[in-house]
Structure prediction request, 168 residues.
Amino acid sequence: MLRTINGKPIMKMPKDPSKFSFGATSSTVTSLGIIFGLLTSANPKAGVIGALLVIAVADNIADSLGIHIYRESTTTTKENTRMFTISNFITRFGITLTFVALFALLSITYAAVFCTAIGLGILVFLSYLIGVQRKTSTLREVAIHLGIAIPVIVISHFLGQLIFSVFG
Prediction:
């Protein structure tokens, strides 16, 4: 629980972040990598929106299928497998479409800033939940996960610049 009013929680923490953590992490890091990889393209708004929509559908379905097959190959129940598959798809689709909407409605600069803030906020929140669940340092979990995600975003940016300078 986060805060209480008169002893009642304002918001309960999810008991099992594994139901949405893969989808949220995957869509956030992938989307931010795509965004920063395509910002230097000739038509970045169309490129980013197009790439995010492809990811929202094709990559999302592929990952959901991968999770589904993996979960079926373990000893989980059929209902549990179905729930994880559906929650992964919905989580990824929702986050990616949020980023698409920001690029459709805002200037490229503002969209990139807001997507970064939202994306890193999602990773911080998930890392915090993991730290609480494991009873470890939440700050350490945040640092580890951002320490992986931020280099992916930075590398994607420079890779995009390299690709467009060589082939663009």
Observations:
- The beta strands are 4-5, 8-9.
- The longest strand covers residues 4-5.
- The chain has a mean pLDDT of 89.
